[in-house]
């Protein structure tokens, strides 16, 4: 039986790239926003702001899943920019334009005022109406909020005893800055365009609050794109490198839902009707490829698709597959460790073989890949509790490991190339934190639920979502500056 195209590949084939138009005056913070959102270290913009052409397609070698169009703002006396933007939207919108050529979203960047002055220009209002008329999702991003916060932080005699790090004082400054933003920015925007969503960002590098702010922009974009019923939101989720929340949502939807609607070879997680005739190893390979593709790591050496990493995930999920009465025959003398489901201290090895180090992963419970488990993976797919546990564990374990890896390699700025040590640390963190609990809950679920009932519903998919939500870290918490 031929393997149908992967959903992630079909999405990329249809949309090519996530196409975004970023609008704003020079120096407003567009480059910082793009670097944060898409995890690129180089500024993909025009060398000379005076030569800015909105039609130019700007693509980064570090992340080719998005294409940027750059437009200057609409200051008084610059009607040319507004006219060019209108012509651009005419060419890049509408059902007659191929979907991969359309603008998928717009970020209108407006500098947060910190010394008075007009926030929204007449051109901004006209442009917002143009975007609405073309039915293009648009978000207003108030940039450089950090400067407004600093105005309150460094106000003369504002800090008690001159202590600028006092948490209560900083909280008051943040509250004051937010109130000023609401008065001078949000209210005028709502008066102008009541339904347009907005967000705020800052420009300081390596700040947790900046990452949370950009993740919010990503989430707002995702929500707007998802409303139109197309899958372009998945393309945007794959391209972005700022929000683990959005990565996980895309990964789950691709695996649990889009496989049904797009390709038609998965009829529910439990039933797996179209998996019939395949061996389980092939099923797991599909899951692995789909999940890894949505995360879009800077993985030049293709480490996440290596046989070494795939085998380590299999070593982890093997513990949840056999029934309790079969564990002795599967794992023999390591039975005491197996019952704890990898709930032990792990070590990381760092041997080097060739130009690329092998995946540096924990010695999971001191057990290799069981011979019986390897034989089990060679069997043809059958709807059994063991198969259900296997699929559930693979999806949850790999997704949570991907999130760990996100916070190690993608959430940092600048984003860096993935290493075997990064992967080893991500697996180690998951093994030592949640693997035992996840596997225990999967076993409890399949014991408590009758298989025929599971097969007639999507409850197993709901359980997978619930486990991921329960044990994941989430996007970086917001923190005041």
TrEMBL record:
InterPro entries: GTP-bd, P-loop_NTPase. Residues 19-143 form the G domain. Gene3D superfamilies: P-loop containing nucleotide triphosphate hydrolases. It comes from the Eukaryota. GO terms for molecular function: GTP binding. Coiled coil: none annotated. Pfam families: MMR_HSR1 (PF01926). This is G domain-containing protein. It comes from Mycena pura.
């Amino acid at each position: 039986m031929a393997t149908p195209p992967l959903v992630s590949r079909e999405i990329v084939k249809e949309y090519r790239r996530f196409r975004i138009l970023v609008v704003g005056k020079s120096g407003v913070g567009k480059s910082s926003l793009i670097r944060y959102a898409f995890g690129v270290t180089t500024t993909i913009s025009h060398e000379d702001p005076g030569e800015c052409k909105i039609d130019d397609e700007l693509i980064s070698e570090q992340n080719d899943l998005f294409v940027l169009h750059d437009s200057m703002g609409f200051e008084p006396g610059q009607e040319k920019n507004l006219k060019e933007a209108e012509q651009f939207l005419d060419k890049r919108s509408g059902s007659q334009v191929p979907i991969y050529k359309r603008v998928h979203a717009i970020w209108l960047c407006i500098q947060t005022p910190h010394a008075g002055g007009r926030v929204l220009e007449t051109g901004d209002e006209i442009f917002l109406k143009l975007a609405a008329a073309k039915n293009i999702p648009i978000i207003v991003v108030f940039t450089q909020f950090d400067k407004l916060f600093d105005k309150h932080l460094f106000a003369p005699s504002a800090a008690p005893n001159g202590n600028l790090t006092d948490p209560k004082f900083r909280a008051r400054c943040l509250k004051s800055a937010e109130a000023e933003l609401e008065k001078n920015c949000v209210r005028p925007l709502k008066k102008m365009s009541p339904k347009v969503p907005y967000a705020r960002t800052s420009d300081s590098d390596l700040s947790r609050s900046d990452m949370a702010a950009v993740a919010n922009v990503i989430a707002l974009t995702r929500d707007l794109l998802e409303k139109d019923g197309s899958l372009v939101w998945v393309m945007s989720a794959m391209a972005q490198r700022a929000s683990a929340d959005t990565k996980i949502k895309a990964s789950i939807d691709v695996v649990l839902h889009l496989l049904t609607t797009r390709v038609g070879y998965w009829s529910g997680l439990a039933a797996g009707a179209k998996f019939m005739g395949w061996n389980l190893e092939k099923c797991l390979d599909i899951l692995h490829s789909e999940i890894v593709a949505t995360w879009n790591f800077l993985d030049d050496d293709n480490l996440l698709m290596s046989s070494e990493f795939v085998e380590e995930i299999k070593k982890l999920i093997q513990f949840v597959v056999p029934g309790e009465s079969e564990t002795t025959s599967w794992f023999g003398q390591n039975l005491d460790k197996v019952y704890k489901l990898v709930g032990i201290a792990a070590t990381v090895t760092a041997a080097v073989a060739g130009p690329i180090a092998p995946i540096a992963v924990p010695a999971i419970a001191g057990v290799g890949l069981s011979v019986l488990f390897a034989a089990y993976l060679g069997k043809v797919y059958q709807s059994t509790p063991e198969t259900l546990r296997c699929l559930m564990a693979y999806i949850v374990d790999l997704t949570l490991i991907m999130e760990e890896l996100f916070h190690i390699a993608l959430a940092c700025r600048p984003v860096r190339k993935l290493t075997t040590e990064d992967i080893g640390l991500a697996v180690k963190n998951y093994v030592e934190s949640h693997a035992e609990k996840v596997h225990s809950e999967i076993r409890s679920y399949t014991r408590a639920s009758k298989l025929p009932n599971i097969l007639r519903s999507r409850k197993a998919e709901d359980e997978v979502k619930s486990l991921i939500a329960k044990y994941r870290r989430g996007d970086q918490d917001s923190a005041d500056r």
